[in-house]
Specification:
The protein is an all-alpha fold. It has one domain. Helices cover about 75% and strands about 0% of the residues. The chain is built from ten helices and no strands. Helix 3 runs antiparallel to helix 9 and helix 5 packs antiparallel against helix 9. The chain is globular, with a radius of gyration of 18 Å. The protein starts with a helix and ends with a helix. About 55% of the residues are buried.
Length: about 270
């Protein structure tokens, strides 16, 4: 009944509602700061590994595989939209990473152009950057389903939103806890932590609108979102988890496997 009512909404509204859920999960995770000042490092590493596994699985099952399938009916080779879109997505995040001032948790040297922004703002910007491809992916998925594209279904878009929402919970905690350890008040750490998730609904609306207006770009858009997500995984999540846990720790690796399996289960079972 709920799914039937949800299906009646415009795809842009569906994308907005889906990422409202993912944002709420980020805020819920950020609320963990009220439970204590520090989080066990192994748990934090496991959370980052889990998030990485979810994003890797989502990138293939929900984005790249459909993009390749849709490309078979185009006048270009079926691999072309996936490869071009994937590299463009990663390149876009790389460019933003080089330009926008931000600071990764546990580090003291900001990246991007020089600025006078406070440390707390730089920390939140770093996480906000990572939420852009997640919101974009959900928006593109709902837009594709709404456009009636073969291989794109509403249930698969919902599965993607669920997967992103699940991994946003530990991600929200991974934002607020380091802020709290910077001697920031619990309330401010929570507020800044949940703010980092607000970019997802914005990116989702843009993604859904783009697909509905320019349907021929859909395979490229799906691969673009996948490339951006894999960039985040390779540039931040896995290296950070392994750096703090130690190169020979099995915790992040096991968490990546579990995260991948959870997202794969959601996509296959619901998609």
């Amino acid at each position: 009944m709920i799914l039937e009512q949800f299906a009646k909404f415009n795809p842009i509204i569906q994308a907005l509602l889906g990422t409202t859920f993912t944002y709420a999960m980020t805020a819920l995770g950020a609320a963990g700061v009220f439970l204590g000042k520090e989080l066990n490092r192994k748990w934090l590493d496991a959370m980052m590994g889990f998030a990485a596994g979810v994003m890797i699985a989502a990138s293939y099952f929900s984005l790249l595989a459909p993009a390749i399938g849709m490309s078979e009916s185009l006048s270009v080779p079926s691999w072309f939209p996936a490869v071009v879109g994937f590299l463009a997505g990663g390149g876009f995040l790389l460019l933003i990473d080089k330009i926008l001032p931000h600071l990764h948790p546990g580090e003291n040297n900001p990246e991007g152009v020089k600025s006078s922004w406070q440390r707390s703002v730089l920390l939140v910007v770093a996480i906000t950057l990572h939420n852009i491809p997640e919101g974009l992916a959900v928006g593109v998925a709902f837009g594709a389903a709404g456009a009636g594209i073969e291989g794109a279904t509403l249930s698969s878009a919902i599965a993607l939103a669920l997967g992103i929402g699940i991994q946003n919970f530990p991600e929200g905690m991974a934002v607020s806890m380091p802020l709290r350890s910077e001697n920031m008040s619990r309330r401010k750490a929570f507020m800044l932590g949940q703010y980092s998730g607000l970019v997802e609904p914005i990116a989702a609306v843009i993604g859904a609108w783009t697909v509905l207006v320019m349907r021929d770009l859909l395979p490229y858009a799906l691969a673009f979102a996948a490339g951006a997500m894999i960039y985040v995984v390779a540039e931040e999540l896995i290296p950070e988890a392994k750096r703090s846990a130690g190169d020979h720790s099995d915790v992040p690796t096991i968490a990546v496997m579990i995260g991948f399996a959870v997202m794969m289960l959601l996509d296959v079972a619901l998609g």
